[in-house]
Amino acid sequence: MPDYVNVFGLFHATRRTLYISTAVIVVLLVFIISLSVGLSNSASPHEDTYAGSQALTTAPLIDGHNDLPENLYSKLNNKLAEFNFTENLKEDSVWGKAACSSCYTDLPRLKTGKVGGQFWVAYTSCDSQYKDSVQLTLRQIDVIKRLIKAYPDDLELVTKAEDIETTWKNGKLASLIGIEGGHSLDSSLAVLRLYHELGARYVTLTHSCNTPWADGSPATKEPVHNLTDFGRTIILEMNRLGMMVDLSHVSHNVMREVLATTKAPIIFSHSSAYAICDHYRNVPDDVLDLVKTNNGIVMVNFFSDFVNCNKTRNATIDDVVAHINYIRQRIGPTHVGIGADYDGVDVMPIGLEDVSKYPDLFNRLYARNEDEPEWSAEDLENLAGRNLIRVFSAIEEVAASLATESPNEDIIVVEELADAQLADKLSPGTCQTAEEWSHYVAPTPEPASNDTTNS
After folding, report:
1. Is there a catalytic annotation at residue 249?
2. Are 242 and 197 in contact (CB under 8 A)?
3. How do strand 297-300 and strand 267-268 relate by DSSP bridges?
């Protein structure tokens, strides 16, 4: 007779049947556990199934600086009817690389590049300072807003941090406005406030020229103004408004003085690391440390001359990676972003030839060489855009805390403005009719020397 046993009080089975059943159950358990481990491993971002560019599908890529509006002005005098933004213009006879060395942007390539947010830049050259810089800046703000309005299915004007990701999730490119160069303010707080009302959300404090209240980036060894009292007033008024203070293009001294003044985080909209390439447009180590303390962000520039100081070779995507990794290792992955400077320069690194190439950069960062830091999916999402959103939100919070303060009514000391005009070989006050100029007394020229002896 078979030897029957009671199995958990539920049914009777022979010992042979029980042994077979137990073996089957063990095999099934081993299979299930193996399958679970396999699925877990395949979901890990560190397996071959994950690419760094996948971060651009889970977070918006926000580029801090694109000069397409300047190309629209220089090539078309802002006549948008003559610009076909919806075509890939890479080989175009007017906008293609062969015809335009600084043209990198159109809608198809932005989509290929998975761009989710873009600061379009209202720039006017330093030649306009003390002349028509305000008028020209207004023209550029106008063309940005008209471009956005002309493509409502693809672009949307954004002025608040919280709307960037919402706009991106709705399938549109969140379009923000930055002003490049403090000369566009014409040393006027009133003009600053009106730019903010028009939608501008950052001001780069200088361009390649000094303003009467702040030194531009070439002034690294021989400062002219550093940051004056009126310059500090501009910073604090930007804090009150909730405008981002952009330190790209300012001198290294002004970087330090602004960071000692501001109540809100700052940005570098398109600058790289001075320790990697010692160009004056890049950010030195001590300033990087101050950016971390300030809770700000450095958005790395791609321009070949800023990322590669070795002129015996061409810049490559690896040079940009080196800057990103250096800043990350120096001050952390939450203080670095992307500010490529497309359409503002004429040479881009091999591998980052136009706005379609951002996914390649994120794939390269994730793949990493042995001596490079490891980027998690979260790190890459922060680099792409969440770091910028965090900084923008913090700036808005500072503005909310200052909401009871009245607009500052200070006027720049007219003698400071006159001295700056004299330095530019202009006749002070010639083109000004404002009330403060009515009290200005021009300095008496020193009499010419009658000494004719040889020296």
Report:
1. yes
2. no
3. parallel
